[in-house]
Amino acid sequence: MPVIDQTHGRIYLLRHGETEWSATGKHTSYTDIPLTARGRELATAAGRVLAGVRGPDAPPFALELTSPRRRAFDTAELAKLSPTVDDSLVEWNYGEYEGLTTPEIRETVPGWTVWTHPSPGGETWDEVAARADGVISRCQAVLGDGDVVLIGHGHFSRVLTARYLGLSPSAGVGFKLDAGGLTVLGDERGEPRLDHVNLVELNEAWLSR
């Protein structure tokens, strides 16, 4: 059923499929590692979810952008997308915490989370928010022509979701986005609206892993 109060196109946020590091909880920003076999399955499934949400008669995207990281670019290809690379879509830079899990970081910084504590040598919340704001502005410039799809990473996409809704970057903690997950940002008569969060294709074999 059509949404009659949608003023502009939607922004589709697609997180890359699983990697060995994402599967084990290691913080991954600039380290360029490939998708696992399951990650490739998730990326292919994400393409089906994206097509299903948009519907069989959806026109081509007005804009398709991807992070330059291999895991994002390969996800786009498997999801049958042909995006342009945009460096602004890279993951939050974790600095000295790159490759570490949260429990490992908490051995020296009790209670640490990326949402509440700094990452030495990495990006601040304000820096990540500024990147997200820039991406949103680029999207808004073309939403009058149709939908936009952004293929990127978990934390950055969650910050972008928060900023789109006019919230602080730390509010991104409230939006889950699994590997291969899809979030959809829309509007209601011009006001930002969260249409869907973390859409994934359910598969009993994946759920049992």
Give the key terms.
disordered C terminus, Rossmann fold, 209 residues, alpha/beta, 7 helices, 15% strand, 6 strands
Protein topology:
Blueprint (H helix, E strand, L loop, with lengths): L10 E5 L4 H4 L13 H18 L8 E4 L3 H9 L5 E2 L16 H5 L18 H16 L7 E5 L1 H11 L17 E7 L2 E9 L4 H4 L2
Parallel strand pairs: 1-4, 2-3, 2-4
Antiparallel strand pairs: 1-5, 5-6
Description of the structure:
- The N and C termini lie far apart (35 Å).
- Mean pLDDT is 94; it is low at 204-209.
- Strand 5 (182-188) and strand 6 (191-199) form a beta hairpin.
- It is built from seven helices and six strands, in the order βααβαβααβαββα.
- The protein has one domain (11-207): Rossmann fold (3-Layer(aba) Sandwich).
- It has helices at 20-23, 37-54, 70-78, 102-106, 125-140, 154-164, 204-207, and strands spanning 11-15, 63-66, 84-85, 148-152, 182-188, 191-199.
- It has 209 residues and is of the alpha/beta class.
- It is globular and about 50 Å long.
- It has a six-stranded mixed β-sheet, with helices on both faces.
- Helix 2 crosses helix 3 (70-78) and helix 5 crosses helix 6 (154-164).
